[in-house]
Amino acid sequence: MSTVFYSHPACRLHDMGRGHPECPARLDAITDHLRATGLDTALTLHDAPMATPAQLARAHSSGYVSEVCDLLQGLAASGERHAFDPDTSASPGTYGAVMHAAGAAVAATDDVLAGRASNAFCAVRPPGHHATRDATMGFCFFNNVAVAARHALHEHGLERVAIIDFDVHHGNGTEDIVAGDERILMCSFFQHPLYPYSGTEPKGRNMVNVPLPPYTRGPAMRAAVQDQWLPALEIFAPQMVFISAGFDAHREDELGQMGLVEADYEWLTQQLLVVAAKHAQGRIVSCLEGGYSLSALARSVAAHLRVLAGLA
Ligand SMILES: [Zn+2]
Question: 290: CA distance to ligand 1 center in Å?
Answer without folding.
Answer: 4
